[in-house]
Amino acid sequence: MSCVNHHQCVEQALARAETLCHRANARLTPIRREVLREIWSSHEATKAYDLIERLSRHGEQVKPPTVYRALDFLLEHGLIHRIESLNAFVGCDHPQHPHQAILLICNDCGDIREEGSEAVHAALATLASSVGFSPWSEVIELRGLCRDCRLARERKAAESLDHSDTHEPNGTAT
Ligand SMILES: [Zn+2]
Ligand SMILES: [Zn+2]
How much distance in Å is there from the Cα of 30 to the middle of ligand 1? Predict the structure, then answer.
């Protein structure tokens, strides 16, 4: 997880959602709020069936359509992003500015980082119009390793090289 105090991330996300919904004259009902909180429980992807299961933990069974409607609401108001390649959802960090997200998904730790690039979106728009194509949606998802996981792998690789040099089975612990 790439944040120091995740509790704060969640509280900020919920406060932002309250403000945005108020401004849009929309209601962040208890179920919508709970779904958003569950999605924000990590910076990783959350699947709809996990939401249904987690929300049903405290007694009453939450029905799938209820959760899907809440997800539609959160998507519509830009509070979450759908990760198409994982069929899952992640909270949006800056829903106050409507945007197309570029999602960087770490294969090792599952962390999802959101980036924006006007240049990338403009290039795609130019590409589409050059062939007369009218796009309805734009999905950009990069799969790979985040910086921490990449460095961890490099360290591991370097260590195993060291070990093969010195024939030390256990090496030095870090
Ligand atoms: Zn976003
Ligand atoms: Zn990672």
Answer: 22
